[in-house]
Amino acid sequence: MLRTLKFIASHPLTRTNKIPAMLHFLSWQLGSRLSKKPSICNFTESTKLIAWPGLTGATGNVYCGLHEFEDMGFLLHFLKPSDLFVDIGANIGSYTILASADIKATVIAIEPLPATFHILLQNIAINQAAKRTETLNIALGAKKDTLKFTRTHDTGNHIAAAGETDVVEVPVNTLDNVLYGKVPSLIKIDVEGYEAEVLSGATNTLNDPALKAIIIELNASGGRYGHNEEHIHNNLIKLGFTPMQYDPFKRALSEAAYFGTHNTIYIRDLEFVEARLQQAQPFHVRGQHI
Questions:
Q1: Beta strands in the chain (DSSP E)
Q2: 8 Å CB contact between 180 and 173
């Protein structure tokens, strides 16, 4: 609990209003445990998420409005209804709901774990976003295959390494095969260390100039599969992408010296992206217009 309270105290949407945010956290914890049922909670001003204690993919949003504020803020300011967004490692659908229900963009949401995929479908349904969202209960990699995934680590579930037990077998395809010529404006990749394999199966997509931005998690977990994340970083730079940080309050991008320990936003065609960010309608969350 102490870790969660520190997160709330430092989060950009709650750090100037700590006491009400922490009271909200404590109230939600008590109420959800007494009811012993999943809760449908407010996400943004116009969207909702199913949540319960321990469901990390949802609870950070319940506590602070937008769990990953900079990256989610970038999505909300960058995407337009005419865009295609691909959510790789969609989990319970936080990014998918922002794109499909808030922005009304077209979304392909890819989540390999059946239990998590079921929650993703429920979140899409309660936000009436099914017509704009294609959902795939598969994993992505460098080729068609099957892989074993862990299933007891919540948002940290990953492709099982040697010796890991309690796993589920999942079909694998490539991103290029899935898109079949369609090109997204934005891709989010959160696959717990398997990013290099996903990108290896996305050569055509990555080389298309219509792809303007990638939000990717590079947190050193690729080492469990023998992948060097600096190699991913350098390859993206060769493709014309630049690692950036985003401040949603100022709508300002600044170049990152290197990739971070969590998500990094890689931008191509900076002038185009910055123009979109400045022209976007504000989004509304936790009583703030951003």
A1: 39-42, 48-51, 84-88, 106-110, 133-136, 139-140, 145-150, 167-173, 186-189, 213-217, 242-247, 252-255, 263-267, 284-285, 288-289
A2: no
Residue 284 one-letter amino acid: H
Q: Which two tokens stand for residue 4?
A: 């969660």
Q: How far apart are CA 253 and CA 67, in angstroms?
A: 19
Dihedral angle over CA of 175, 181, 186, 192, nearest 10: 0
- Tens digits of residue pLDDT in 241-262: 999 999 999 999 999 987 766 7
Query: What are residue 134's phi and psi, to 5 degrees?
Result: -100, 130
Domain boundaries, the chain: 1-66, 68-282
User: Which long-range CB contacts under 8 A does 279-282 form with residues at least 24 apart?
Assistant: 280/76, 280/77, 280/78, 280/251
Rounded Cα distance between 224 and 26, Å, is: 36
pLDDT of residue 144: 94
Cα separation of the two ends of the chain: 29
| 197 φ/ψ angles, rounded to the nearest 5 degrees | -70, -40
Q: What is the model's pLDDT at position 101?
A: 98
Identify the pLDDT of residue 169.
Answer: 86
Domain with residues 68-282, CATH architecture = 3-Layer(aba) Sandwich (3.40)
What are the helix and strand counts (H, E) for the chain? Answer: 11, 15
Q: Which residues of the chain have pLDDT under 50?
A: none
